[in-house]
Amino acid sequence: MQYCAYCQKKFVIKMIVSLLDLKSKEIESGLHISKSVISRHLSGERDCPEIDIYIIEKLFGIKIKDYSING
């Protein structure tokens, strides 16, 4: 069975969040966004690149200063 790239991304993000034991409250306070946006992003209903960047920063222990989202 093959999975689409989006499904793979969703799986990887959930694994990283689980591995780091990140709670939605921590993401909420770190990014100053609502819990519903975080829930929708993690469930795959909505895309929010800021959450992905926050999770990557936590995973590698770095701070990404400048980034642009081309869409």
Task: Briefly characterize the structure.
This protein is an all-alpha fold.
H and E order: HHHH
- The amount of beta strand, in percent, is under 5%
> What distance lies between the first and last C-alpha atoms, to the nearest angstrom?
30 Å
Rg calculated over all Cα atoms: 12 Å
Helix content: 55-70%
Could you say which structural class the secondary elements and strand pairing correspond to?
mainly alpha
Label the overall shape. Answer: globular
Major β-sheet annotation: none
Mean pLDDT: 85
Poorly predicted runs: none
Number of helices: 4
- Tally of extended strands? 0
Structure description:
With about 70 residues, the chain is mainly α. The protein is built from four helices and no strands. The chain has helices at about 5-20, 25-30, 35-45, 50-60. Helix 1 (about 5-20) packs across helix 4. The protein is globular.
Can you lay out the helices and strands and say which pair or pack?
Layout: H1 5-20, H2 24-31, H3 35-43, H4 49-60
Key descriptive features of the protein:
mainly alpha, 4 helices, 71 residues, 0% strand
